[in-house]
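Possible race condition, two jobs.
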Amino acid sequence: MRASRLLIAGATASAVTVFGHWTAAAEPLTTMPGDGLYLVGVDIVPGVWEAAGTPDPAHGCDWRRLWKVEGDNTDMRNIIANNFTRSSPVRVEIKPTDVAFKTENCGPWRLLPPPPRTGSFGG
């Protein structure tokens, strides 16, 4: 019985090693295709993001910057900032300290390029 457990444990460890070796972590994206919850630094990069806005003005675009991912992410204690808007385009700055970003009915998002350096103090 002990030998079979060791065999199973060894096979499991080998599988983890093989599969772990072949599954490389993907780079965070600079686009979000649409609705969803995106982890900052894992799924997406921080920065200023823009979406065209809601394709359905009756419902509006809803986004949330989160410091904690839990449940359905409607707990106001977990939301850093949020907006519900029918305006276009929609822009938000996702910070490196944010844990996640949730978007609903905003359309696809894209990361905007950083503004050019001015050479002035702080820029």
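Job #2 (started ~2 s after job #1):
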Amino acid sequence: MPRQLGDLEDAVMTRVWQWNRPVTVREVLEDLQRERSIAYTTVMTVMDNLHQKGWVRREVDGRAYRYTAVSTRAAYSAALMNEAWSHSDNPAAALVAFFGMMSAEQREALQDAMRIVLPDLHEAPEPPSGEAADEATREAVDEPGDEPTDEPAGEATEDPADDAEPETGR
């Protein structure tokens, strides 16, 4: 599972993800230099480390490498959330706390994601009709171990003793 990227690794990967194309060390350097003073060799080392860790792949282009992200930022974020959640001793409580921290926009994004991943969850089930409704009703009210019968629920049935032969010798 992935560990969280360091600050400079994240700054580099952010550009690789945003540009969504093969990039050179020089391109990333020039963009980073708009925010901070940084050396070419530092960016080159970070990109080589990202390659060694499997975050980017690279291909030779003349005397330089072009780097491409192996996965998306969304996949990275999801892996981090999954990793953190899997280490919780109470996953349900962790989710409740996480949802409680979400903004309205984040909750809306979560609902949209749930509709995509679990479309059946958001559709109102149609109530059963006919025999299926009778069966569903029986299953819902039967106690464990009760045997299903063909008798409609709630109606009195004949006592099986009524069909028995009369005893002789009385």
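Residues 136-170 have pLDDT under 50 and may be disordered.
Logs attached separately.
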